[in-house]
Write a structure and sequence with these properties.
By secondary structure, this protein is an alpha+beta fold. It contains three helices and four strands; from the N terminus they run αββαββα. 42% of the residues lie in helices and 21% in strands. A four-stranded antiparallel sheet has the order 1-2-4-3, with helices on one face.
Length: 101
């Protein structure tokens, strides 16, 4: 017997386009969305990474994170959905809000 309570729906192309229109700095990269955030220095980059890590733990949705001195690239995908889900759009919005602080 399969537990369907944890099934996460993959976004339709239409819903993805709609969601990305609300997240103009994010772009689709295959089965993921991605954004690079720029900072004044490495310490500010790492502060952002730590804030993203805390948020990721609280919502149990963990991005791929690439740090290049003053740039942080986040890549989001929902492995359980086999691509992008509402969780990705929501977390992208959360990260944009963290960047604005």
């Amino acid at each position: 017997m399969t537990d369907q309570t944890n099934h996460i729906e993959k976004l339709t192309e239409e819903r993805l386009a709609e969601g990305l229109s609300m997240l103009p700095e994010w772009s689709q990269n295959g089965d993921s969305i991605q954004r690079t955030f720029g900072f004044d220095d490495f310490i500010k980059s790492m502060g952002f990474v730590n804030a993203v890590a805390e948020k990721a733990e609280s919502v149990q949705h963990h991005p791929d994170i690439l740090v290049r001195y003053n740039k942080v690239t986040l890549t989001l995908s929902t492995h359980d959905a086999g691509g992008l889900s509402e969780k990705d759009l929501s977390f992208a919005s959360d990260c944009d809000a963290l960047f604005s602080i």
